[in-house]
Design a protein that fits this description.
By secondary structure, this protein is mostly helical. It is 71% helix and 3% strand. The chain is elongated and about 85 Å long. The termini are close together.
Length: 235
Amino acid sequence: MAGVSSCMKYSMFIFNFLFWVCGSIILGVSIWIRVSKDAQQELEIDSSVFAGVDLLIAVGSIIMILGFLGCCGAIKESRCMLMLFFIGLLLILILQVTGGILGAVYRSQIETSFSKTLQESVNSLQSTTEESKVFQEKLQKFQTTNQCCGLLNGPSDWGKNIGNSKTCECEVKSSSDLCTYYQGRYVYKNPCGDVIINYLKDHLLIIMGIAFGLAVIEILGLGFSMSLYCQIGRK
């Protein structure tokens, strides 16, 4: 009977050990951010981004589990663990491909939903509640950094609140492509919503490249695990 390839066995082990280490780092850092008040203050993280941190905790946990199954399955030549690793990795690949297809098919709906979210945020710019003021302060920093004003319609998004401070004030004291004269002063005229959308579009290629790279790694992992699974069965 044919034996198990030592090269494939230990390559599978090393690959999944690195996989497990990455998962451990993601999980550890995410939990630290989630529970440490000092970390949240240092990184300027509030409860609004906890959903993203929780998602990272879930991702880190899944990567750790898959890495553990792959490592133990390879080194102990366990067909059960290798099959569980194969199924888990296959499900992730299917979800990844499905997400990409749905994103392409429902792109217009996603853009519409994003616009609705921005519109809700515009209402916060015109509000005077304490919660809205926190959001307004964060947006003011974003406006200064990215030389934009408002979210959808420019300076008018701020309503009466634009006169309460130096919100959106443009450093260029002349009308140009960057500034416009509004209510007695020069302010940035480009909406920050456009800046956000352009940023996402500019980085879409990078995101696609990362997703493609992950898919290739996942397919290689599927191939190695199934090959090792079959070799152990023929042993």
